[in-house]
Amino acid sequence: MNSKLLFLLSILVFLSFSQLSLVSCRKAKTNGFTLDLIHRDSPLSPYYNPSITPSQRLRDACHRSFSRASFFTKASIHPTTPFNHHAIQSDIVPIPAEYLMKISIGTPPRETFAIADTGSDLTWIQCKPCTECFDQIFPLFNPRKSSTYKIIGCHSKQCEAVGQTVCVRKNVCQYEMNYGDNSYSVGDIASETFTFASTKSKTNKKVQNISIPQVIFGCGHDNGGTFSNFTAGIVGLGGSKVSFIKQLDKQIKGKFSYCLIPMDLSLPFSFDPNITSKINFGPKAVVSGPNVLTTPIIPKYPDTFYYLNLESVSVGGKKLKYFKSSQLMSSSSAAADEDLGNIIIDSGTTLTIVPEGFYKKLESTLVEKIKGKRKKDPSDYFPLCYETKSLAKFPKIVFHFTDADVELLPMSTFAEVDKNLTCLLIVNGGVDGLAIYGNLAQMNFHIGYDLVNHKLSFLPTDCTKH
């Protein structure tokens, strides 16, 4: 088994839990809180399948990236439609993302796992009684056994905030999500207490659980589709007012950050289970220092996504002006203004995806700069590949966002996806595809979101020591 590739994908999220005394988020808000992040395919995950080869893990992640981009595109180009009890195209995408949160729900707390996703808004999990549910390893949440569970009424502000709802059983706010891959979730909008285990720090070795009351979420009674058994639902970390981040606004002041552990594929490594990625909320999420790079977060429809403005990409010192297909058709200033916010940053997409026209320009420039023997990827997932043994070094790649020049790590842009086959991890998203800055490109950066001032910060960081 190629352990280097296994570690390549071990950068995402699983949140550890401990049975310690609870404190409310209001008490913890002064200092904020930090949680551990571990990849869904990591050996540390309880759902790790050792029979899957590292190459297949990477190809599966590639497939999820393309699927996710496809449905993101549908969500961004189709405006929200009035609620239809039988069919609706949602802005929330349930493609199995890369991050898991181990949480506890209710009083007394019941632990479960859910996908943590910056590309989603409404938090929902599977609940009893379940008309039809996809398989999950942990028991279904039973709201009848929780003293803090509360159904949300049809005419409440909370129901209105969710948006796509219908009134059932006289006064129950019901959501229905149908997705482009035929996955779906239908259930009641409710409020409940969510509990998270705040990570120990170097100065404070004691772990306290953070208890957050009255979180608005979906209690799903009819769910199905492409969801895997490693999850019970989704924790929405997106930008709309119903997201978990916005619901915590009073406590965290619109600030969260994460630091994804880096990998050096040129060297053998020993996997240290004591080193994990981190996600921070509140004051602990502030990214500061002399080397911080800051770029605007562009407000744009749909407000689920965090849009950045990419101006150009440099390859070995050669700067390529970034463009989308729509910019080829119109050079007017109005069109240029509309194209501000031309790429989203997403924790749940592995690869970085750019539009077809720009990708072709990027690939041809890389071919000019790279000295090595081209080799075809048998799976056709990766268009630009080389025979690993023939490669000397890769050109430096810099993404030039507005006011922020971010130099990618070599292991963020190229990887040995199979024996003696090294491929580019920036891929072609098609003519109308939504551009995505994926999580491999975010490795070894402390990335901070300031949603009050609409700014995103990049700080080059050794995330193994963060």
TrEMBL record:
Taxonomy, superkingdom: Eukaryota
Family statement: Belongs to the peptidase A1 family.
Pfam families: TAXi_C (PF14541), TAXi_N (PF14543)
Signal sequence region: 1-18
Protein's UniProt name: Aspartic proteinase CDR1-like
Residues annotated as domain Peptidase A1: 99-459
Record SUPFAM superfamilies: Acid proteases
Keywords for the protein's UniProt record, in alphabetical order: Aspartyl protease, Glycoprotein, Hydrolase, Protease, Signal
TM regions (residue ranges): none
